[in-house]
Write a structure and sequence with these properties.
The protein is an alpha+beta fold. The protein contains 3 helices and 10 strands; from the N terminus they run E-E-H-E-H-E-E-E-E-E-H-E-E. Strands 1, 2, 3, 4, 5, 6, 7, 8, 9 and 10 form a 10-stranded mixed β-sheet that branches. The radius of gyration is 17 Å and the shape is globular.
Length: about 210
């Protein structure tokens, strides 16, 4: 039986859900379980909200912190913030853990352009330069053997960490789409920490992060 989501933290306006790997964020993607349906069944405030109040996405194979609004005003404001707009944009911080192939420097950062090759493309293209709406920034530091901690700076782009690190020469373990070696469960990426103003919410580490030194 699949591990179900849990609520890590909550306020009057939002919840942070610990999403298991192997769950879609939204309903209707496949026969796999999804957080949207789980929220409608388990969280009363989600029943009547668009997409059950979910304000951003995690890939099916990505585990960890997922932000969910509990009322319509918060949903609109937090969606704006996740896109880098509105008064709350600077108050949200997202930190991920990834297991990579290769030996990245102890720390670094990138700003790259991420664009879909065509509508509904499974893969995004990465370039050194591009239009502002396509740009994604990350800073990273090595925190264990093959492990990097990645902070998203500003709004996230689709597959930003996966495609960005692969472009730099360090594909994720399990991310065959971007040149990584196969691994059970797919790309080894975890939404580890979510900062919401003065609140810092942390998800427990996945099994593949055993060499974490933080």
């Amino acid at each position: 039986m699949a591990v179900e989501p849990t609520i890590l933290h909550g306020t009057d306006d939002w919840l942070v859900i610990d999403k298991p790997a192997g769950w879609h964020t939204l309903a209707g993607r496949s026969e796999l379980p999804d957080v949207e349906s789980w929220l409608r069944e388990h969280v009363n405030t989600s029943v009547d909200l668009h997409e059950a109040g979910v304000v951003h996405r995690l890939d099916c194979t990505t585990s960890g912190c997922l932000l969910v609004a509990t009322n319509e005003g918060a949903r609109v404001a937090l969606r704006e913030a996740m896109s880098g707009r509105g008064p709350y944009a600077e108050s949200i911080g997202k930190v991920y853990l990834a297991r990579v192939v290769g030996d990245p420097p102890a720390q670094g950062q990138f700003e790259l352009a991420f664009t879909s090759r065509y509508k509904r493309s499974k893969k995004v293209s990465v370039a050194a330069k591009g239009p502002r709406p396509a740009l994604g920034r990350c800073a990273w530091q090595r925190v264990g053997e093959g492990l990097v901690e990645i902070e998203l700076i500003g709004p996230g782009r689709r597959h930003q960490i996966r495609a960005g690190l692969a472009h730099m020469g360090w594909p994720l373990v399990g991310d065959e789409l971007y040149g990584g070696p196969p691994a059970e469960g797919g790309p080894q990426l975890h939404a580890w920490r979510l900062g919401m103003g003065d609140d810092l919410i942390e998800s427990s580490l996945p099994k593949w992060a055993t060499s974490f030194q933080g």
